[in-house]
Recover the amino acids of this structure.
């Protein structure tokens, strides 16, 4: 019984830990900024007719977007 209570308290602390939440918010902010920047670079490359560069940037964007999606899921664990 006591162990279950302790595990419950530890789980609640992990969920509400302000330091971990701040790190998660910082990470999502950085990833969102990177995604936004890449989207702009892709638009610029396509407007200049540089489709090869745009395609390369799109692959990078896809990876960053996947990381951002995971970071946002993690942030939701903190109620954010």
């Amino acid at each position: 019984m006591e162990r279950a209570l302790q595990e419950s308290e530890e789980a609640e602390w992990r969920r509400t830990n302000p330091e971990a939440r701040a790190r998660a918010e910082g990470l999502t902010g950085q990833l969102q900024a990177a995604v936004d920047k890449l989207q702009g670079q892709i638009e610029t490359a396509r407007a200049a007719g540089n489709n090869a560069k745009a395609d390369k940037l799109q692959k990078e964007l896809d990876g960053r977007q996947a990381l951002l999606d995971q970071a946002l899921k993690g942030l939701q664990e903190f109620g954010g």
Q: What stands out?
A: DSSP finds three helices and no strands in the chain. Helices lie at 2-16, 18-47, 51-76. Residues 2-76 form one domain.
